[in-house]
Amino acid sequence: MAFILNVLWLLLGGFMSALGWWTAALVFALTIVGLPWAAAAFRLGLYSLWPFGTEAVDRTMVDTDGFGLRAFNPLLNLVWFLLAGWWLALGHLFWAMVCAITIIGLPFAYAHIKLAGAALFPVGKTIVRTA
């Protein structure tokens, strides 16, 4: 079922959403200073490309090794939240309400709610398969 939902999601806007996230990741990466946010935007692009059967979780739940920069994740997430996270989450919540108008759109509304949560504080998160 997740495969069918992902294919429908992909055809009905998921690909464009992922392209938007990947474009943002490229812009962040070009600034060099924005590399931590570029990595987060790239992961969110992957997440928005195929949201059903996956979940964004804290990286420490999956990977015990790290780069030694985890102490900066809250600061990086705060900057992200103030500059981009809250309005990206509001956009996903808006589209969730639009999708929730019909019964057929309820799974897509759920995907937008998951993406809104991930868009708030993406630094230090990774995407894992749930199904």
UniProtKB/TrEMBL annotation:
Membrane-spanning ranges: 27-46, 67-87, 93-111
Bilayer topology annotation: Multi-pass membrane protein
Signal peptide: none
Pfam families: YccF
InterPro entries for this protein: Inner_membrane_protein, UCP028777, YccF
Key words of the record: Cell inner membrane, Cell membrane, Membrane, Transmembrane, Transmembrane helix
Principal localisation: membrane
Cellular component, GO annotation: plasma membrane
Domain Inner membrane component: start-end pairs: 4-53, 75-125
The keyword Coiled coil is assigned to this record: no
Localization: Cell inner membrane
Entry protein name: Inner membrane protein YccF
Organism: Rhodothalassium salexigens DSM 2132
